[in-house]
Inverse folding.
């Protein structure tokens, strides 16, 4: 008997469950450390050295250096933790969310002002041909 | 005379709303319609400041990292400092608790089989402070103490809608067992539709949100049966925060055999940053 995970067929969406949390533990804990101004400064001054203090996989470290939020999420990151990286960079939540969609910052902002992304055609993997 | 619940209040808790208030941008064209939507609430609140607020919200990787992930928690401290979420702490007063009332509620809830995590060190983030700012503006001190009830809606599985509604009913019983004549409001925060992650980020579903508001007012028992997957699919992965509104709704008298509440205000607006904003004030009918 497998666990019930009905959320695996929603396109463009990763649900942060116990399995993702286990994979992303150190990535997310690294993000938590950025809640202090001192650590934000240390991270900014030498990102690689700061990341090497954490027991993260090389893929996780590279995804942080690349600021590739979709990749970070696939490797166990959760957006509320990852947002600390954006805060350190001076990015807003809207800039972070938009960066994951393949749209430009202006396109994404316009989409939100126009009422956001419709759920129509965005509910099931098969609607995205996935 | 015992404590009693006088109203429940529901609101989204978008961080950008806090930034707009703190940076005095509320009159800008982008923000004005949203803040105008809360003006009737501020007027209502001026006449209805409670003696305590039981405030249901979720911590956004602020006080709870992945080290501890309580499903339902309750803050029993005297003071809850305003957190630095990465942008620096918001320039707002600290949130004052009500240790005696909170400890009473914690004891009663656990005796009613809700295994609360008791938290005495809790920095509060936008989830709790943005609704306070929306309802009270920018005072030098918040006008009443707050009992924070953080709910895990970050790591799955989350508590079900039914469980949340039942917790609200238990909060009502707990309040009514407190032997001081406190007027208590219960607030449910978070939502409405939004998704902050992945290629589907930016999802908004006005039809779902408005149907949610209708059912929250008129038929919360059936609304509570909505499974998490329906929130995720229809209202976005972060839209599932709406289960927390069911906790506040469960605390109202009609779910304990009393009269239905009176809707004092209802407001809906898109967008605030990535999010649809919903807001309700339900007052107990005397």
């Amino acid at each position: 008997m497998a666990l019930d995970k009905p959320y695996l067929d929603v396109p463009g969406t990763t649900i942060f469950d116990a399995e993702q949390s286990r994979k992303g533990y150190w990535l997310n804990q690294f993000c938590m450390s950025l809640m202090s101004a001192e650590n934000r400064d240390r991270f900014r001054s030498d990102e690689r050295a700061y990341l090497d203090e954490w027991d993260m996989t090389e893929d996780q470290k590279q995804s942080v250096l690349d600021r590739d939020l979709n990749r970070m999420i696939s490797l166990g990151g959760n957006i509320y933790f990852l947002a600390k990286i954006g805060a350190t960079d001076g990015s807003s939540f809207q800039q972070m969310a938009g960066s994951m969609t393949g749209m430009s910052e202006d396109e994404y902002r316009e989409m939100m002002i126009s009422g956001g992304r419709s759920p129509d055609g965005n509910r099931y993997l098969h609607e995205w041909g996935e | 005379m015992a404590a009693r619940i006088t109203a429940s209040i529901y609101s989204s808790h978008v961080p950008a709303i806090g930034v707009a208030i703190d940076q005095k941008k509320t009159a800008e064209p982008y923000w004005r319609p949203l803040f105008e939507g809360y003006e009737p609430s501020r007027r209502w609140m001026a006449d209805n400041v409670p003696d305590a607020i039981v405030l249901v919200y979720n911590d956004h990787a602020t006080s709870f990292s992945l080290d501890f992930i309580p499903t339902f928690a309750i803050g029993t401290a005297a003071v809850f400092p305003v957190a630095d979420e990465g942008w620096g702490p918001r320039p707002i007063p600290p949130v004052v608790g009500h240790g005696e009332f909170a400890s009473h509620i914690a004891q009663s809830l656990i005796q009613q089989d809700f295994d609360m995590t008791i938290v005495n060190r809790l920095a509060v983030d936008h989830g709790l402070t943005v609704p306070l700012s929306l309802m009270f503006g920018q005072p030098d001190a918040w006008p009443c103490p707050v009992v924070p009830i953080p709910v895990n809606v970050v790591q799955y599985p989350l508590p079900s809608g039914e469980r949340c509604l039942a917790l609200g009913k238990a909060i009502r019983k707990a309040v009514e067992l407190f032997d001081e004549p406190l007027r208590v409001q219960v607030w449910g925060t978070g939502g409405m539709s939004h998704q902050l992650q992945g290629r589907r980020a930016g999802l908004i579903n006005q039809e779902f949100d408005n149907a949610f508001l209708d059912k929250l007012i008129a038929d919360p028992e059936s609304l509570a049966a909505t499974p998490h997957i329906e929130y995720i699919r229809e209202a976005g992965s972060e839209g599932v925060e709406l289960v927390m509104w069911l906790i506040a709704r469960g605390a109202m008298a009609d779910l304990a055999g009393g009269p239905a509440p009176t809707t004092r205000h209802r407001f809906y607006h898109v967008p605030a940053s990535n999010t649809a904003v919903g807001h309700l004030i339900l007052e107990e009918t005397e």
